[in-house]
Task: inverse folding
């Protein structure tokens, strides 16, 4: 069955803070309900903790790191799930149950399997 | 045939290629060996074997052992499919081509190319883009279907109404693209109305009990019945009150009205928006003259339409019908009460017309000018311009 990445775009906050406990509870509920199709995934720390890496001048060139995410946006990539579903319809139906779907957005992308 | 191949092979591009190969083989072998007893089965078997060859070669090259194709191992001849298999394959293809995960642009292109059978060049001409752009758009859409695994199946009953209204919207968009074109250089676009009608008939054949489908076909037929009367000898548009009703296509009207009846019988409790719009079009189609239009019926149908979805544009159309029944002052009061249409040229054009009828020429002038400045389409703008110069 095809694999899909469900990329979670939501408020760029520290999800470990107690004030987000209710949201985390919703994610746990989703995780249990969708356990049959979830193959992996994690929440990410805030984009303030991100480091963007580039190598200039081609492979083997200078490593240039910069503080912050690749793209500075109001809603940031804050986590992801790896879902194994029969087809896009099932993946979309599953993604629609991720709390970010009503508090942000979820991008569903098919995974290339080598 | 293509729809069946797509199901068997599971890839639109490959199915198109092997169908072409099979056609070439038929041209080579049928004159020599005679036409096979069952040409359809021969064609499917030939195309399928060719697809298996191609996939075997490609999977070997990619070092993959697993067959990337459903039923790839099953090389025995398929039995002759009963008609309902063909019907189901087409139906699946409809829902794949009009899947909401594809952009509307891509849905339109796929519907015309894959369901309508137009060539890429024809689709490009009809949609006013270059052939290269259209080819790219089609390739991207087919890639997304394959890579994201957009399913090739009829949606479950619970999702059907929403998915069906998506399919209808795509076909109706194709119809309107053609209907908005006026002729002359736009003739290739006019052919889009014929394509949309063909798709509408296909849907009605595939889903004869779905009111949305019946209403969509009825609505397109009833609009299209006025095609001859819509333009004068110079090619300028003629509005409904001034059209020569003798040139309306009575066969299309009859078919459309019958479909409205069938659609209504299937929607006793929640009316379908397409059926209701077709019912309004039927009121006009059945009136011998504009003056004898049954405005009570038209207004009631607009009330029903607003109950399926209350939009400012729907209310504007209802107000125009009220103006015909109860006079311009009653209509204007309703038009002015609709909020949020300041940027909509037809709102200003309707106001201008009603103010004009009430003799308020200054206010009418301002409203006409606003409609024109908001970019109402050219022929109507010319007509409003004439109105402006005629104002005292």
Result:
């Amino acid at each position: 069955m095809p694999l899909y990445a469900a990329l979670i775009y939501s408020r760029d906050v520290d999800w470990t803070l107690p004030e987000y406990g209710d949201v985390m509870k919703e994610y746990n509920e989703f995780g249990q309900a969708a356990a049959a199709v979830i193959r992996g995934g994690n929440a990410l720390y805030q984009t303030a903790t991100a480091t963007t890496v580039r190598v200039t001048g081609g492979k083997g060139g200078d490593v240039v790191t910069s503080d912050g995410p690749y793209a500075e946006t109001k809603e940031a990539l804050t986590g992801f799930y790896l879902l194994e579903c029969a087809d896009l319809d099932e993946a979309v139906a599953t993604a629609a149950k991720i709390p970010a779907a009503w508090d942000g957005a979820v991008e569903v992308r098919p995974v290339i399997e080598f | 045939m293509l729809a069946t191949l797509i199901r068997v092979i599971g890839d639109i591009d490959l199915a198109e290629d092997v169908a072409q190969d099979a056609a070439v083989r038929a041209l080579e072998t049928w004159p020599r060996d005679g036409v096979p007893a069952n040409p359809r089965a021969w064609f499917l078997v030939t195309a399928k074997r060719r697809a298996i060859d191609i996939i075997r070669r490609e999977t070997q090259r990619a070092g993959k052992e697993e067959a990337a194709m459903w039923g790839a191992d099953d090389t025995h001849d398929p039995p002759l499919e009963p008609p309902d298999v063909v019907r189901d394959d087409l139906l699946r293809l409809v829902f794949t081509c009009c899947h909401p995960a594809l952009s509307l642009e891509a849905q339109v292109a796929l519907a015309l190319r894959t369901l309508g059978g137009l060539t890429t060049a024809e689709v490009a001409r009809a949609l006013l883009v270059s052939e290269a752009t259209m080819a790219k758009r089609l390739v991207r859409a087919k890639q997304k279907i394959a890579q994201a695994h957009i399913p090739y199946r009829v949606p479950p009953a619970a999702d059907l109404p929403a998915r069906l209204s998506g399919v209808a919207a795509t076909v109706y968009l194709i119809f309107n693209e053609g209907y908005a074109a006026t002729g002359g250089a736009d003739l290739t676009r006019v052919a889009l109305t014929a394509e949309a009608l063909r798709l509408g008939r296909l849907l009605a054949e595939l889903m004869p009990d779905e009111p949305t489908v019946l209403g969509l076909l009825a609505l397109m037929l009833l609009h299209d019945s006025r095609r001859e009367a819509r333009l004068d000898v110079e090619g300028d548009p003629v509005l409904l009150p001034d059209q020569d009703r003798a040139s309306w296509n009575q066969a299309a009207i009859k078919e459309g009205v019958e479909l409205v009846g069938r659609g209504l019988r299937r929607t006793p409790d929640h009316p379908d928006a397409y059926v209701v719009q077709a019912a309004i079009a039927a009121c006009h189609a059945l009136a011998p003259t504009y003056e004898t239009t049954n405005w009570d019926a038209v207004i009631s149908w607009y009330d029903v339409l607003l109950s399926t979805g209350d939009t400012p544009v729907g209310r504007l159309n209802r107000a125009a019908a009220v103006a015909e029944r109860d006079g311009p002052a009653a209509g204007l009061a309703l038009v002015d009460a609709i909020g949020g249409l300041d940027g909509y040229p037809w709102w200003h054009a309707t106001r201008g017309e009603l103010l004009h009828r009430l003799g308020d020429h200054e206010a009418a002038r301002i409203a006409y000018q606003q409609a024109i400045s908001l970019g109402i389409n050219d022929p109507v703008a010319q007509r409003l311009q004439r109105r402006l110069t005629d104002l005292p």
